[in-house]
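Risk register update: the risk of archive-format incompatibility is retired. Evidence:
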Amino acid sequence: MFDPSATREQVNAVIQILHEEDLSAVSAVVHDTVTVITEGSGTQELTSRLEKSPGVERVAVVPGAQRLTSRAFREEGTRVTVGSRAETVIGGPGFAVIAGPCAVETREQMTAAVDVVVAGGAVMLRGGAFKPRSSPYSFQGLGLAGLTLLAEQRTRTGLPVVTEVVTPKDVECVAEESDMLQIGTRNMQNFELLREAGAAGKPVLLKRGMAATIEEWMLAAEYVMHAGNGDVVLCERGIRSYDRSTRFTLDLSAVAEAKRITHLPVIVDPSHSTGRPHLVAPMSLAAAAAGADGLIVDVHTDARSALCDGAQALSGEQFTTLMSRLGPVVEAVGRTLAPASAPSLASV
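Archived output:
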């Protein structure tokens, strides 16, 4: 890693030293710091030479393939700021709650759901404009029209929004209309999409694949960071198991393990993981107790008519109750519910 005053010539000089040792090297800007990443192992003499090179602030020797995401690369936890007003932070002492409907359907539906989650204390809004579905006959989202409706709610409330991007070609337009790009479970190992999202200049919410190991999840995040984006938030959303009692199995041990091995924030999706509204609250409380940095929750004021995943959505009353129960648990583990900036709801 280089200090902020390092010149391009100093960066190139370090790359040249590595090439002389037959080591590959690529530079990236991570957390506003120029970082040179190399594969393979060098000698202690090489490490000492690099440490003495002009402009170099620190040399981190990171074993294994998990380099930029590792605690060995960055010991302190990363705090990801979302939105232009720098008021929404994921990571750090605040516990952030992101909420909204699974899919954007209509302006009326979005307004009703957003009013509920804003009043309940959510600090970010969610809603899918593009929906990758298991069946080609299921509702696939409104596409660009959905992005427009989501952007309207951002303007109306002042809160940042996160929405899913499903193909590399859509990254640019989704980034223009949202504050955070979501990579869903089906696309966790869509490497071209990870690269494009990493280069888009917006924070990325990376959900764990439904059959992915923790290591594979970390390496997917590595792709985003390797593209120069250090603002990555990991999301545990449940993995496949043999039990049909729940939609997926929420792996809270993965939250604790991820917090141990990576500096990136980790949040939990209790809605997609359980698929049952009555399980969302207890799993949310358990996630907070396990050390998660926040939640992303499905809320719909008329779930029976929802076009996507209505069976897992909380009602407005259920969301309000959840938020009231979260406070004591979050405080018990030394954190606070991240406050929203008391937005003034305007009519769209």
